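Query structure, 254 tokens:
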């Protein structure tokens, strides 16, 4: 009996590792977290390959009801908790692991690729990325400027910034890279600190890890008009570039 926390990769049902697939097949119940990212395949595609019925786990189930569902099951049988990307790309999954261990449940972790390392395909050096930030959907009275501050902090240290974008799958709402650029420009208009302007170089990515991934480099002014297609998107604001990074980004220039 154990809770098997399994990263299933970024794209489709075939991104799961052999070790991960073997673990899924021996589990009595299989949960799929459905709120941190978006796969490029359907749940039925996963079920067909895995040979298991999949239970969708939204944020409320994982954060507030796990003791009555996932963890309750894992005390009695092998249970799989599938995570898009890598297991611990979201802090909520670390919380689930800690709660399981406190309840005396054995936890087995099987890692996979995450957006945090998949961005290496842009040609930027991974060890030059600073703090990662995220941009939420703005609402009346809620327009946090922390993402702007993170870009500023990373720039001062000569580090690149990976910006993750909000998503609400249950509402079929997925923030686009162009929305993120608009958001940062809005903060710049308020603060005038020359951190993120229309001339700022950016890299917009969509569906990393898939056959139809799209990666485009250009100024904020150019990329705000770019159509990258379906989600998930992310945005990168590079800092000072090595000549090899410059060459790699040249291939992506819009």
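Result returned for the query:
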């Amino acid at each position: 009996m154990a809770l098997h926390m399994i990263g299933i990769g970024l794209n489709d049902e075939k991104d799961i590792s052999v070790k991960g697939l073997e673990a899924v097949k021996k589990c009595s119940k299989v949960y799929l977290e459905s709120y941190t990212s978006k796969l490029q395949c359907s749940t039925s595609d996963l079920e067909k390959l895995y040979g298991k019925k999949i239970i969708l786990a939204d944020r409320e189930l994982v954060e507030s009801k796990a003791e009555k569902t996932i963890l309750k099951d894992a005390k009695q049988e092998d249970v799989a908790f599938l995570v898009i990307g890598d297991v611990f790309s979201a802090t909520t999954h670390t919380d689930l692991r800690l709660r399981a261990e406190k309840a005396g449940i054995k936890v087995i972790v099987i890692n996979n690729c995450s957006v945090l390392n998949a961005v290496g395909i842009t040609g930027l050096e991974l060890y030059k990325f600073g703090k990662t930030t995220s941009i939420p959907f703005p609402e009346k009275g809620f327009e946090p400027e922390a993402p702007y501050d993170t870009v500023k902090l990373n720039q001062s240290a000569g580090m690149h910034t990976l910006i993750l974008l909000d998503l609400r799958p249950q509402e079929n709402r997925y923030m686009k890279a162009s929305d993120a650029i608009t958001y940062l420009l809005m903060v710049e208009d308020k603060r005038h600190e020359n951190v993120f302007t229309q001339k700022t170089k950016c890299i917009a990515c969509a569906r990393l890890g898939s056959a139809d991934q799209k990666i485009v480099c250009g100024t904020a002014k150019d990329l705000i008009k770019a159509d990258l297609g379906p989600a998930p998107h992310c945005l990168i604001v590079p800092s000072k570039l090595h000549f090899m990074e410059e060459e790699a980004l040249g291939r992506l220039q819009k």
